[in-house]
Amino acid sequence: MTLLEVLGLFTFMVGICIGSFLNVVIYRLPRSMSLSRPASSCPSCGYAIPFYLNIPLVSWLLLRGKCKNCKAQISVRYFIVELVTGLLFLFLFLAYFKFNVRSLGFESHDGARNFLSGGWIFYLSGIILVSSLLSASAIDIELWVIPLSICVFLSICGIVLSSISSLLLPFAQIVKFDLFPTATLPSASLAFGAFFGLAVSLLLLRKGLIKRSYQTSEDVNLEDVKGSFEEGLFNHRLEALKELMFVLPIVVFSAVAYFLVQKTSIHDSCADFVAIPWVSNLAGSLWGYLIGAAVVWATRIFGTLGFGKEAMGMGDVHLMAAVGAVIGATSVTLAFFIAPFFGLAWAISQMFFKKTREIPYGPFLSIATILVMIYHDAFFNRLAAMMLISSK
Fold it and tell me: How is the chain split into domains, by residue range?
């Protein structure tokens, strides 16, 4: 076997192991259970699963999807999540380092060498994104909720990996091939100003000067609330206005920061600061976070104001904000506008097969994100060609 094949096999093995952990996350996280304790056990009888019966893919097949102790059925979801995670890890590796589906800008044609000489950090950001989207989508499909902790984890990983990427890869390569988010002076000033505004909004929220939307009293059962939105429990337009008040300081301070940087004497010193590679990457990741949140939140707020019912969920806002921190502002915007096509395809298939199974929007956003991440070059080359044609 070549080194590239060994690395590919290794990524698949890592993937199925991560998939096994994702099954723990999918089951325990939304139920407020510890991810580490107790050890894996049968949900039906509580039988503690020994390590030799907890081998990804293999154990489920050997046990034929049943608990060894009580013979209760073990959901096929466990097997599917492990397999899909492993295959996605492998596909991502091959797409980047063997088939060059997305150009990474390395001069060498040796994929293994490119991976080991810095390409691994780009691959790492990709598999973290894929893992987070898989777990968030599985939880969203089952419970119609996206845990905030997954979005926070993904956001932190995206910001950190982007900020240190220039230590491992040439900054010019990162910019030219859009490997990690970067920022120019205008977008950096908007990003830093907006995050200052976000801090102001959170302070106002904590002080009670602005109100949290869709807030219920402690004696209201959240399960009852979920099914009561259409029964007059909330005035949806009023709740959207509360969110608009939260967003207002973010918009104001981003505009102020932009004006100060562009129109005052601090322009040159700020330009020199943003030209530092890690600062540009940090600002680019923050800007991607904001744009990812903005495109979904704007749809949510103005859709709710227009139709008088809640449009999209806040989980989708947090999810796409985290995605933006990883892949940047332009890519996350493209993913958002591609996602409706998957939603439409699902709706048509439901009509064709006369089924009524509804699923939330998070999985469609996730599918679109993964496609944009992998087929980045094809999408943007096509967009560039369309813009060139339209300009003639």
Answer: 3-145, 171-391
Dihedral sign, Cα of residue 60, residue 62, residue 64, residue 68: negative
Report the amino acid identity of residue 228. S
Q: At what angle do helices 185-206 and 277-307 cross, to 10 degrees?
A: 60
Residue 304, token pair as written in the block: 């709710």
Give the span between the Cα atoms of 200 and 249, in whole angstroms. Answer: 7
HSE toward the beta carbon, residue 380, CA cutoff 13 A = 17
Using alpha carbons, select from 78, 94, 90, 91 the residue that is nearest to residue 19. 78
Instruction: Work out the number of other CB atoms within 10 angstroms of the CB of residue 187.
Output: 22
- Residue 48 phi, psi (nearest 5): -70, 120
Give the residue from 85, 74, 73 showing the smallest Cα distance to 138: 85
Q: Write the CA distances from 64 to 20, 55, 71, 78, 197, integer angstroms.
A: 17, 13, 10, 12, 55
Q: Give tens-digit pLDDT for 174-209.
A: 999 999 999 999 999 999 999 999 999 999 999 999
- State the burial class of residue 256 (Cβ atoms within 10 Å of its Cβ: 0-12, 13-18, 19+): middle
Average pLDDT for residues 233-257, to the nearest whole number?
95
**Tokens 């560039």 sit on residue:** 384
**What local confidence, expressed as pLDDT, does residue 215 receive?**
82
DSSP of 100-125? -SS----S---HHHHIIIIIHHHHHH
More confident residue, 389 or 115: 115
The pLDDT assigned to 337 comes to 96
Expressed in angstroms, the distance from the first to the final Cα of the chain is 51
Q: Using omega within 30 degrees of 0 as the cis cutoff, is the peptide bond preceding 181 cis?
A: no
Task: Find out whether 332 and 324 touch, Cβ atoms under 8 Å.
Answer: yes
**Backbone φ, ψ for residue 169 (5° rounding):** -130, 145
Asked whether the predicted pLDDT for residue 225 surpasses 70, the reply is: no
Whether the model pTM is above 0.90: yes
- Contact between 146 and 139 under an 8 Å Cβ cutoff? The reply is yes
Which amino acid belongs to residue 350?
A: Q
